[in-house]
Design goal:
CATH superfamily of one domain: Ribonuclease Inhibitor
Strand content: 15-25%
InterPro entries: LRR_dom_sf
Distance between the termini: 36 Å
Number of helices: 16
Helix content: 25-40%
Radius of gyration: 27 Å
Structural class: alpha/beta
Number of strands: 20
Shape: globular
Largest sheet: 18 strands, mixed
Protein name: F-box domain-containing protein
Length: 496
Amino acid sequence: MRKCSRLTRVHFVELPLDILSPILESVNDSRYWCVCALVNKTFNRAVTPLLYRNLDPKIISKDRVLHHPATTILKRPELGQYVQHITESGWGEYTQAVIKLLSLCTSLKSLTWSDDSRSRGYALVAFLDVIKTLPHPLEELNIRTHNDPAPEVWEEVYKLEGLKRVSIWCMEGPPRVLQGWCEKLGPTLESLELGRCAGVPPTILIAVLLHLPHLRELRLKGAPASVITGVLAVLPKLKFLDTEYLPSFGRARPASSSSTPPPALESLTVRTSSADFMGPQKLWPWILELIPGPTASLHTFSLHSFVMNVMGKGSISVPGGFLLELSRVHGATLRQVILGDAMLTLGDIECLVDRCVGLEVLSCMTVVSTGKVDMIKKALKGERSLRSLTLQIDWIVGEDGHGTQSPSEPFTLETAREWMLRSEDSSLRHIAVNDRHYTGKWVLQDTDDTQGETRDVGDEEMEALSSQFEALGGVRAPKKELRFVVSTDAHSPSWR
């Protein structure tokens, strides 16, 4: 263990200002941006574009007076140039203020219309009229409503051209699948989400997608499983697919006779439910049919599933044969396998991390005896790149009768630290076991701080770290040691 004895004094005023914006942008939290805006004029100029980049006007009631962000920008029109993404709804009393606001947003890229009321969306037409006069065309449009917008509204929406991303999710009314609009969007559209496809004839859905050859991202809700393979046949550039597995009980759609190979998907998300713990019939071969290879391409595979039975919610058990075939075809490229509540045996986990050499994120459910926690560590011995491990563990009492079913006792903070530091080149820094999360990181601490693990580092590395620390404070830093600290947080959100 080496201690830093040589320090280079660096004043804050000497730091290059061009690195300030990237640093502040990485924070990605408006609360901290507000604090940074009050530091000095330099920070204020750097953080102001970030504060107004995404405008989500949540109506705030204070002293019985409603406040809308449009009132702030109308008082300071120069702030409008920073707005790139805006979310609006049908608040009638603010329609005129929002129209004036939109005319100031000369850098606007995306508009989200989110309305849970029973309105027919006429205000959206007025907003689109203003957006059409802006210097740059709109790139993204998201429509999420409870009620179906009026026909006049859809007529104006369908006049838009040049969009790159479109998302439509209307809870009521007929399904909207871009009929009469897809021809205009074909040359530019790269991302599409259709929230309601149930009841749409497969021929219509595929005919629409035929006009969108540049699609790279597709999210479908309500489309039968037999249609998805036909959809892939007409989208050669598709990289991201998020869909449901809805078995169709009619005659299966014949395979496409086209010689065009299926797209090389990089991300696949499948959502399903079943009354059988082995999952819906033919689910697993259907998934493999979407990613047949032979060239490895898949980076992320996510399965959102649950089993409904007389005992309540259960877990789907993933067949070992499916994992073998998945890793055989895509083992060289897989980085994330997110199975949620789907069940894997410890043998399956061992096979997966051994065959997927670049696996960085693994999330699944498993069963472990309370007295054999080390069996999980043994199953992970073949991993090389794992950074995040999320396990929903069903703890069972050991065969000797000892132990407890409490998930908080078998796996402790010391266990997490041991797993993260089990080898010199270990990258594991996030472990979640049921509702408890453990995060490890190397930090600089005073030499008299006895907490955490330490390691030897070279003079140059410690010199650089200490200089960075000193620069932030503008004073000479005390001697520091690099220590590994593991923190825990219960009820944290799982890795996604």
